[in-house]
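Annotators were shown the component list below and the corresponding predicted structure, then asked to write short factual statements about the assembly.
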Amino acid sequence: MKTIRAQQFRSRMFILPYSTSFLVFIVCPIIFAAALAFTQLDLTSKEHLHFVGLDNFREALKDPYVIQAMKVTVTYSVMIVPAFVVLAFGLALGLQAMAFGRNFVRGLIFLPGMFNVVVASIIWRWFYDGEFGFFNYLLKRVGMQPIHWLGEKTIALPSVVIMSLWWGLGGATIILLAALQQIPTHLYEAAMLDGANGRRLLSNITIPQMRPVLLFIVVTSTIGAFQVFGQTFMMTNGGPERSTTGLVQLIYDTAFNKYRLGYAAAVSWLLFGMILVVVLIQAWLLRRAVD
Amino acid sequence: MRGHFLTVLFLICFGLGLVKLFSGGGPLARAKTEISFWNGWTGPDGVAMLEVIREFNEANPDIEVSMQRMAWDTYYNKLMVAAMSGRGPEVFVIHASTLPRMVRAGYLDDVSDLYGPQSGILRADFEAKVLEQVKFGKKMVAVPLDVHPQGMFCNADMLVAAGYKNPDGTPRAPATGEEFIAAMRSMQRVNAKGEHDVWGFSWTFWRNNFMALVPQFGGRYFDENGKADLTNPGNIAALAYMGKLMNELKLTPPAESNAGWTGYRQKKVAMLFEGVYMIGDLQNLTDFRYWGAPIPQIGPKPGTLGDSHCLCIRTGLTGKQRAAAEKFIAFLSDHGLAWAKAGQVPARISIRNSPEFQKLQVQSAFAKQLPYLEYPPRTPLLFELIQEIDQAVERVLRGDMTAEKSLKVANDNVAKAIDRDKLENDKELNGS
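Structure shown to annotators:
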């Protein structure tokens, strides 16, 4: 009995450092932010803090900037998540089929993800530069008109999406490739003996077997898309005309430029609610498909 | 064996302790008053300031000033949080335009007694409008170190080649609206495909460009009662002029382009409006002759935008620390010329009148605008205002709205922010 207790004590001691940091840096801030959302905390006011009930939420739901940022966030997510999943899955299938040089290509695909988002954004800002950028240089070489990649309202967000795909695709591809390699080969062998072609193998074996991992990729990429900030902040600073200002950037501006921490906390909880709803729907749809 | 090891270890530690003691880490060093100085000068200006601080530390062995600099956005966030928790630096820099927020938050100490013959900082050595910026009620909350106006940077060779030169051969920048447009036309170079190889002029930082023109047209941001007044005729005229140059006369790169400052450095833009502090970016260019001039008078009267770096002391300093902070501020104020060389216009008239300052071409040219320079409006809601100005200018330059309509949208949003702020502060005052 004593030995079991000693073991339990030791195991608790092992998880204590992480639990402590989780409590201090994750749980406590969440509780603090929850409380903050119901207060007015303005760093530039003499009386910093007081309770305002649901006022912050009411104001946020009527704030045209919040509504616009929600639209931008949703548009960005709708553009990037399907492209992200399809491309990562396609790349994983391609890599799986490669007989030679798979590791090299896998390394190349994974490489952009090694860059910090700031570095990646600065590189792409130069690629996209209207006057001196690499892409416009190529366009001019083939006799085409330059494009103002980050300067036009309709093009700026898709330009950010392209950069984000380049930057984030590697990680998802590696995960999907690993999952592909876990599918038992006898399933394919049996299907081929039954005369299944490539398309049937993909739709009847590969995709069903991959669904749990695809669910993981869809959910994590959706959460990431809703939280887009670094790319837009560095490449467009939310412009032109706020066409790339997502909710996280709005929260940042509200908290750290306007110093309205209570209101920013309320908008953060709205963002959390949006993510939760979307992810629950995705999970339900994919689980239903698996069942 | 173990005994020997411990003996050697002891001797090493003892030796290091002695070295530390006699090299300044001992009681003498501990007697020093330490002053932490924060600012946002991350460019060549920061390097110049480090040199001034080194001189101060050498001249004052009983005080040790250490400087921490970071990008302005990060700086203000960090300063706000540090000040809120009472852990702010002893001395720090605040833009004159940001002072109202910091004053409302109660983070700045009264430095009225710093002005006087004992420190050498005389009120008479500043323009009234500059001192006005640091005065809140009866208190002076800061010492202005500089004034940084928006002015016009020109490519000296292009000006001269286009015939804009004085009898002595020095460049002569356009001074009126008509001359300005004529200069743009004569300096632009359009190739056979109709593309601009060189633009005569480019807008740069749209908000500052707009705010530099507003005083020329008699514009303002708030009325006498503190209500938003962005739709006044002066603002509309200033914004319409910006749109006209870009979209009607096609004399500037289009809104989608970012030719601006980079284009100027690459000799693809002949003239632009920028802050005097941008000189730091030009000083190391060996094959580029730049020229500074006041912004041409485009509206009915001359005018431009400016701001000041102000030296502040945090609340709660007493005794030696307060005295050291005051001594340091007086030293910085006194060394305005070194600061000017880094690309600033000193706030003190006596320094601006010195022959050394007059030799600094761009700085002295920009300084000529001080009599009619205007500061951003005094409001704790500055971020809310400039956010709306950014949007308003962008809508016009992109051709999405007229100046009048765009400023109306901005005005409504600023009015809402004022109402909200008033409501919140009234709640505070009523204790609810």
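Statements collected:
1. Chain A has one domain: 57-290.
2. The first strand of chain A starts at residue 39 and ends at 41.
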